[in-house]
Amino acid sequence: MTVDVEITPPCVMSEETRFTGFDIELWEEIAKDLGLAYVYHETDLKGIFRDLVDGHADVALSCITITNEREKIIDFSHHYMDSGLRIMVLNKTKFSLAESVKSIYSPIVFKAFAYIGLFIIICGHVFWWVEKGHKYISTSYFPGIFQAYWYVLVTMTTVGYGDIVPRSWVGRLMAFLVMIIGIGIFGWTIAQLSSAITLQTLHSDITSHWDLRDRWVATVEGTTSVPALEKLGAVVVPARTIDQAYEKLLNSEVNAVVFDSPTILYYARNKGAGKVSVVGPLFDIQYYGFLFPQGSELRESVNRALLKLRNDGTYDKLHNKWFGSH
Questions:
Q1: Taking a C-beta distance cutoff of 8 angstroms, is the pair 138, 132 a contact?
Q2: Which residues form the Solute-binding protein family 3/N-terminal domain (predicted)?
Q3: Which H or E run includes 170?
Q4: With 222 labelled, which of 145, 229, 245, 273 sits at a CA distance of 20 to 30 A?
C-alpha cells in the first residue's frame, strides 16, 4: 500500500530516513490497528491529488482540508482535526520614522493628549481667574487666558522659564497643584507615547485578517488559503511549498504569510522564533481528513479505526503531544 505525504510541519516532517509528525503517528496507529503494510511516498499537494486520481496511491495525509470541490475527485475520511488559517508577519528590527509617526494616531495616545489638553484648559481658567490684573496676567480674557495656558504648560513640563509667576497666595497654591498633578499627567503621557512608538516599531500593522486587503500575502498554491485570501482582497503570492512562502516573508518580499494554523504556529515557535510573530485570531475554520481514491474500501475501515482511537484515548495522547490539550 502506498501512502502519499507532503512535508508540512508539524503534521508531516522528515527526520533522516523516516517521517514523523502528528499525521504520521496517527496514521501509524490506524495502520497498526488494521494490520496494514505500507510505504510512504513524498510528493507535493498537486502530486497527492494526481496520484489518488490515477490510482498510484491508496491513501494520502498532510493536514489536508476537506472541501466540496476536492470531494468531487477523491474521498475523505471523517475529519480528525479542527483547524483554520493563521497570519504570520515579520518582526521589525529597523527603526522607521514613518512607522513611529503612526503611533501618534493610536487611541491611547489620543486619550493621553486629550487629558493634557483638558488639564491645561481647566487649570488655565482657574489661574487666569485668581491672577488676572496682577503683574503678569491681563485682566482681559484675551490675551489673559493664553498667558495662563502658557504658565500651566511650562510648569507641568518642568520647563519653568520664570517669565510668569503667581503673585497671590491662591495663585501659588494653584501652581503647587499644577506641579504635583500636572507633572504626573505629563509623565504618564510621555510613557504612553513611548510605549506606542515601541509597539509600532516592533510589530506589524497587520493585526487581523481584515488588515490583509491590498497586502502582498504568500501562501501555498492550490490550497484553501488562496480563495480565502482572494475574498479578503489580498494580493496572493503563490508558493509551491510552505518553506518557499516563509522565505518570501523573511526576505521582505511579502507583508505576511497565511496558512493552516498548526503549520504556522509550529514554525513560529521553532525555526522562526524571534524572527516572526503570529497575529490575529484563527479565521476561515477548516477540517482535516485522510484522502482516498473515490470508492476506496479502505475509507470505512479507517473511519472505524479513528473512532476507536478517540474512544480509547490514543488520539488525545497524540494531540496533546503535538499541540497541547484540546
A1: yes
A2: 2-326
A3: helix 169-177
A4: 273
* pLDDT tens-place values along the chain, 326 residues long: 999 999 998 999 998 889 999 999 999 999 999 999 999 999 999 999 999 999 999 999 999 999 999 999 999 999 999 889 999 999 875 555 665 666 666 677 888 889 999 999 999 999 999 999 888 899 999 999 999 999 999 988 878 788 888 888 888 898 899 989 988 988 888 888 887 766 655 556 788 999 999 999 999 998 999 999 999 999 999 999 999 999 999 999 999 999 999 999 889 988 999 899 999 889 999 999 999 999 999 999 999 999 999 999 999 999 888 877 54
In a domain, 92, yes or no: no
Whether 31 and 47 map to the same domain: the answer is yes
Q: Is residue 86 part of a domain?
A: no
Helices and strands (H and E) in the chain: how many? 12, 12
Q: What is the CA radius of gyration of the chain?
A: 31
Residues in the chain: 326
The count of structural domains within the chain is 3
Q: What's the grid cell of residue 181?
A: 498633578
Residue pair 240/221 in contact by the 8 Å Cβ criterion: yes
Which domain covers residue 33, as residue numbers? 2-80+289-323
Edge-to-edge strand list for the sheet holding 256-260: 235-239, 216-220, 256-260, 81-90, 276-288
Q: Is the pTM of this model over 0.70?
A: no
Cα gap 67→122, rounded to integer Å: 62
**End position of a domain, from candidates 202, 229, 263:** 202
